[in-house]
Specification:
The structure holds three protein chains of three kinds.
Chain A lengths: L7 E6 L8 H9 L7 H5 L8 E7 L6 E7 L18 E3 L5 E3 L9 H5 L6 E2 L26 E2 L5 H14 L13 H5 L5 E5 L6 H9 L6 E2 L11 E4 L15
Chain B lengths: L2 H11 L5 H31 L8 H13 L4 H9 L9 H5 L1 H18 L22 H35 L2 H11 L6 H32 L13 H27 L8 H32 L2 H12 L3 H19 L2 H4 L3 H27 L21 H24 L5 H10 E6 L2 E7 L3
Antiparallel strand pairs in B: 1-2
Helix pairs in contact in B: 1-17, 2-16, 3-6, 3-15, 3-16, 4-9, 6-7, 6-16, 7-8, 7-9, 9-10, 10-11, 10-15, 11-12, 11-13, 11-15, 13-15
Chain C lengths: L8 H8 L1 H4 L5 H25 L14 H12 L1 H12 L9 H18 L8 H8 L15 H32 L4 H11 L6 H34 L12 H28 L7 H31 L3 H12 L3 H14 L1 H5 L2 H4 L2 H27 L16 H24 L5 H10 E6 L2 E8 L1
Helix pairs in contact in C: 3-18, 4-6, 4-11, 4-17, 5-6, 5-10, 5-11, 6-8, 6-18, 8-9, 8-10, 10-11, 11-12, 11-17, 13-14, 14-17
Classes of the chains: A alpha+beta, B mainly alpha, C mainly alpha.
């Protein structure tokens, strides 16, 4: 059950990710992310609030593809927050790093200081063909050019679920699909988990407790920066990997 | 005063030595012996242990850093204004150059520190990239020793070249064995224009070389004997900060030496308000710059807030040594800033000297903070990051206090003994300035005209 | 000054006011060309305003590019004014006299170019930044984030701009009075208003001298802090590799002095060639600047060395990868070599020779080389850092500036040229009263057969 003061976070099980990018598509449609054409990809300006990074390992015929979904880590010590001159990004009291679109003047300082490169800038004015205008999500702001944007843990879904629960006098269940961000709901292999880290019974808390330890698979991305992310990653289990000094239990 | 009168006056003063001088020398000698006893106690601790036992040498390392910073930075007071052709430096350039002799004591104090420095095989980050390049495991000690030796020798050469005309004058005024010594020191100086030319040239080159050696010495010692010992401390500015502290403390210690000679040596005709004022302005500027150097390092660590940086901040700034940081901040920056902007204090004798004493106290505490902290973590197993519990503040033991007292006394002792042989006021420069300075009527007043030769 | 020529006040007036009272034939074409280039840049900016920041070469992860490089470069050039005016005034160096105003004016226009290079133009929504940040929109009850270096920046730069403008103006007053007394009609009214009733009484001279000294002393902390703050825009960030180093503040400042003093030397040579002021800006001055530059350049090189040593000292893969990119990968390696040679390895050995230091032509060439090198130095710090060589190889990026960015960079240079041209038409660029004062203070001392130049000290 979601607590009264939740601390939202995610667990990403890299072992299960197959790189299908359903999460990317779901996020784009939920959050009115601009359409990334081939030209925009080539300009390196594609906006993907959650992106699946693919790394190739080995030589043919033993080639392996490794996938890791990377999204905003909603760091507790976010390096992007102190550098914004106009407080367009700040840490809210539910543990999330939020972006306020209408304060943003687009200095891109925050994007520079994000070690995960999960902040995206609208270099061009986003455009949708006439036929897709009805597809835009009315709960989410449509951003103009010159503004930074990034993953919000689908805060509009969280707000709606909380409002509904308050209206109906009900508690929010931990496995509520209405609460989950779009990416979590769309993942076919249960790679992504979302929940309240302040609730010790939630999936994410249990997974984190089990795996973040000396013998678990849990880790944070780029710990040397000291960002204290709210996203826990679970290592891939590679049955063919040779035992080395590092992997020795 | 005519040049001849100046010469007579200054050399006469060399003969003015009384009971006070002798008693001071005796006391300093006793204190130096106490220092050697303290040092011996530390050696016994180390040998008894079998290992290098580096952490107990923190205070000794800090003492050397203090002397390197304060005393060996002092000759810059002679070198820099000479390049800028400021005439007010003339009376005090010898006072500053005499600190070159203190370099000998300094070097001797350094040798044990080189001995106890851990070998690069322990895996710490160093300037020598020991893991990647195949350098000998004791490169830091060897290089730093060579650099410090070069610095000391350059300081001595600087003093010698500057004093050569004075030695010649002394040769012409003494007899017997003393004359033979001065004749040897003067190396056949007769004051021909070729010799003056050579001397001026040499002073310029040796001065520039001394400056470069000073910067290199600070770079070598501060990094190899300080930064590399603290896991996770990566501060590109630290060598420059260390060198800047040397400039600031060098000015401070020269001010103190000036004051002692002014008050007790009877040199009031030569060391005047102009000299205190000139150095006071310099001390003011350098104290402001102290803050800038300190803040430039601090803001990067504080803003970045990476775990490694926060651990270093904890050890060196806001943790066990926080109270030292306060003392240093107040005396190296805060007091000089708010007092020296006040004209009556800056343009006085007592003002700059008082502030200089504060600066030296601050430097002393600063070096203690840095080196005692660095040496206290030098034997941690993890060489790349400060983890777990930080050691608390290391208080000085009895041997440490004795070493400090003895070391500083030894420096003062050698300086005082040197003034018996080498006149503390540069005689030939004093005579020279009479040629460059004339008074002339100008409209309805009279002005002083100063020559600025190329 | 061994080659001193004592000039009368009348001669000084005639020579130095020639730019104001007479218009040479090349002046209008030069202004028109500069203005045209400047307006082209404005047009490019307008295009960017209309289409979006996408018209530049910026992308993810290279979010900052040539605009920031240009910004830092011009802040660097602007340091020349203070160095030469304030520091040389406080150390009573006589050779500064003809150079101070040119340096200070260069500072003022460079600062304006710096503002045009980045803060006003490179943000995503300039209409927001330029209209709603100054003055700030407090209606929502939220203040600016004073922890952000982008708040320290405008504070520092605007303070510096204000102080420099005041400096120029206070030093200009006596000369404005001279021009006022030689013009009539509407022009005379303009100068009279600006000269604020200057009559040259002892009290007025005293006030002006004290104001100059106070401003010199007060502006020195600004001098140190402005470029430190600009450098902290980069150094406080942890994510771009190669930026998070404590050396940035002094490194940038000494680089600024190097670049700025070189720019002043270039300007001096141009003044001699174009206005014919060789009697005032003599080889002696260039000699002195050359020697100063050797010291400054070598100090800069020391800090450059420190930056590299401690970058490698970290033994961090991302840091090493960026350094490898800068030195070994084309085209960055080519730029790196060019930068090293133009910023230090060619000019400094050349300046060791007296004949080079005293030659107008060679000082012009070497100082231009220095500024090319220093622009490249800023480029090589900023762009490879943002190109990312971090753990996520997937995000490694690349960058090359677009035509819009190039046009806007050229625009900033055109602004400085335009500003200087217009300034020399309205006001004398060499301070008359300073030069006259130098002539009055000057004297000679005979020592044996030698004559030593001297100056009066009160």
């Amino acid at each position: 059950m979601v607590t009264a003061n939740p601390k939202w976070g995610m667990v990403v099980d890299v072992d299960k990710c197959i790189g299908c990018q359903a999460c990317v598509v779901a996020c784009q449609s939920e959050n009115n992310v601009p359409i990334n054409t081939e030209e925009i990809f080539n300009q390196r300006r594609a906006i993907e609030w959650i992106r699946v990074e693919r790394y190739w390992e080995g030589e043919f015929p033993d080639v392996k593809a490794r996938f890791i979904p990377i999204l905003c880590q909603h760091c507790n010590d976010a390096p992007c927050e102190p550098v914004c001159p106009v407080f367009a990004t700040y840490h809210n009291n539910e543990g999330m790093n939020v972006q306020i679109y209408n304060r943003c003047i687009g200095t891109r300082f925050c994007a520079n200081n994000c070690p995960y490169h999960v902040r995206y800038f609208n270099f061009w004015e986003p455009e949708w063909p006439e036929s897709l205008h009805n597809q835009l999500n009315p709960d989410v702001t449509v951003r103009s050019r010159g503004i930074m944007e990034k993953c919000t843990f689908c805060i509009q879904r969280i707000r709606r679920t909380k409002r509904n629960a308050a209206r109906d006098g009900e508690e929010i269940a931990d496995d509520s699909r209405a609460l989950n961000p779009a990416c979590v709901n769309s993942c076919p292999t249960d790679t992504l988990f979302f929940g309240d880290f302040n609730d010790p019974e939630s999936k994410v808390s249990k997974l984190a407790e089990k795996e973040m330890g000396d013998h678990g698979r849990g880790y944070h991305l780029l710990p040397q920066y000291g960002t204290s992310p709210n996203v826990v990653y679970l290592k891939k289990v590679d049955k063919d990997a040779k035992e080395t000094a590092d992997t020795h239990a | 005063m005519t040049p001849t009168a100046i010469g007579d006056d200054l050399f006469d003063k060399g003969k003015l030595r009384g009971k006070k001088f002798r008693n001071t020398v005796i006391i300093l000698g006793i204190l130096t012996l106490l220092g050697i006893i303290g040092f011996a106690l530390r050696v016994i601790d180390t040998i008894g242990d079998g290992t290098h036992n580096t952490p107990i040498w923190g205070y000794h390392a800090a003492l050397f850093a203090f002397i390197l910073t304060a005393a060996q930075g002092a000759p810059m007071v002679a070198i820099a204004p000479r390049i800028a052709k400021a005439h007010w430096r003339r009376s005090i350039s010898r006072i500053a150059e005499l600190f070159g002799l203190v370099g000998v004591v300094s070097f001797l104090i350094y040798i044990p520190v080189a001995w106890v420095l851990p070998s690069m095989e322990d895996g710490r980050r160093t300037l020598w990239f020991y893991g990647e390049l195949k350098v000998p495991a004791h490169m830091p000690e060897v290089t730093t020793t060579l650099v410090l030796l070069a610095l000391t020798i350059t300081g001595l050469v600087l003093l010698w070249v500057s004093a050569m005309p004075d030695f010649a004058m002394l040769r012409d005024r003494t007899t017997g064995s003393k004359q033979r010594w001065f004749a040897w020191l003067a190396r056949g100086w007769i004051g021909s224009s070729k010799q003056w030319h050579w001397q001026k040239h040499r002073l310029g080159i040796v001065g520039a070389f001394y400056f470069m050696m000073l910067i290199t010495a600070h770079f070598a010692y501060s990094v190899d004997f300080g930064m590399t010992l603290v896991p996770g401390w990566i501060d590109a500015l630290y060598p420059a900060t260390h060198a800047h502290n040397s400039l600031q403390s060098g000015v401070a210690i020269t001010l103190i030496a000036m004051y002692v000679l002014y008050r007790f040596g009877g040199y009031k005709d030569y060391i005047t308000l102009d000299q205190f004022w000139g150095l006071g302005k310099l001390l003011f500027a350098l104290s402001l710059l102290w803050f800038w150097f300190w803040f430039s390092s601090f803001i990067i660590f504080w803003f970045g807030a990476k775990p490694a940086e926060e651990a270093v901040l904890d050890l060196l700034f806001v943790g066990p040594y926080l109270w030292i940081v306060f003392i240093v901040f107040i005396f190296a920056f805060f007091v000089p800033l708010w007092s020296m902007i006040w004209n009556p204090l800056r343009k006085s004798v007592w003002g700059p000297v008082t502030i200089a004493s504060g600066v030296l106290v601050a430097t002393m505490f600063d070096k203690i903070r840095l080196y005692v902290a660095a040496f206290s973590v030098s034997d941690l197993p993890n060489k790349h990051e400060l983890v777990d519990i930080l050691p608390g503040a290391v208080m000085p033991g009895v041997p440490d206090v004795l070493i400090w007292v003895g070391g500083i006394s030894a420096c003062i002792l050698i300086y005082m003994l040197a003034t018996r042989i080498i006149p503390p006021i540069n005689v030939w420069e004093q005579k020279e300035v009479t040629l460059y300075r004339i008074h002339k009527p100008f409209h309805r007043t009279e002005v002083q005209i100063l020559g600025k030769p190329d | 000054m061994q080659e001193h020529v004592q000039l009368t006040q009348r001669q000084i007036n005639e020579d130095l006011l020639s730019s104001v009272l007479k218009t040479p034939r090349w002046w209008w074409p030069a202004v028109i060309v500069s203005a045209a280039i400047f307006l082209t840049g404005i047009g490019a900016f307008g295009y960017m305003l209309n289409q979006g920041v996408g018209v530049t070469g910026l992308n993810r992860p290279v979010f900052w590019g040539v605009y920031m490089v240009n910004f830092v470069f011009f802040i660097g050039i602007s340091h020349a004014g203070i160095m030469i005016s304030a520091i040389l005034r406080l150390t009573q160096a006589e050779w500064r006299r003809p150079v101070t105003r040119a340096a200070e004016v260069l500072t003022v226009f460079s600062l304006m170019s710096a503002l045009m290079a980045a803060p006003l133009v490179h943000v995503g929504r300039p209409w927001r930044a330029d209209l709603w940040v100054f003055p700030y929109d407090f209606a929502r009850g939220v203040w600016i984030n004073i922890r952000s270096p982008f708040v320290w920046d405008p504070s520092a730069v605007m303070t510096y701009l204000t102080a420099s403008t005041l400096f120029v103006f206070v030093a200009l007053i006596p000369d404005l009075a001279i021009v006022r007394d030689r013009t009539d009609g509407l022009t005379r009214k303009f100068y009279a208003m600006m000269a604020m009733g200057w009559r040259g009484t002892p009290r007025q001279w005293k006030l002006q001298a004290v104001a100059g000294i106070l401003l010199s002393a007060l502006v020195l902390p600004v001098f140190v802090s402005v470029h430190s703050i600009v450098s902290w825009d980069f150094a406080v960030q942890i994510a771009p590799e190669a930026w998070h180093s404590t050396i940035f503040a002094p490194y940038f400042i000494i680089g600024a002095i190097h670049s700025g003093v070189s720019a002043v030397a270039t300007l001096m040579v141009i003044m001699v060639w174009v206005w014919g002021w060789g009697k005032y800006l003599k080889p002696d001055h260039l000699d002195a600047i050359g020697r100063l530059l050797i010291v400054v350049a070598t100090t800069w090189f020391f800090f450059f060395f420190l930056e590299w040593v401690f970058a490698l000292y970290t033994l961090e893969d991302p840091e090493l990868a960026v350094r490898e990119l800068q030195v070994f990968q084309w085209p960055w390696s080519g730029l790196f070599v060019v930068f090293l040679f133009t910023a230090y390895l060619i000019p400094v050995p050349m300046w060791m020779f007296r004949s080079v230091r005293r030659s107008y032509f060679w000082m012009f060439v070497t100082t231009i080389l220095v500024n090319i090198g220093m622009w490249l130095e800023r480029f090589l710090i900023i762009v490879p850092g943002t190109m990312r060589r971090g753990d996520f190889i997937f995000d490694w990026g690349s960058y090359h500036p677009s035509i819009i960015e190039i046009l806007m960079v050229i625009m900033t240079f055109a602004w400085v040229a335009l500003g200087m041209l217009v300034f020399t038409k309205l006001f004398p660029l060499i301070p008359l009263f300073d030069v006259k004062e130098g002539m009055v203070f000057r004297d000679e001392i005979r020592i044996g057969r030698r004559v030593v130049p001297a100056s009066i000290r009160e």
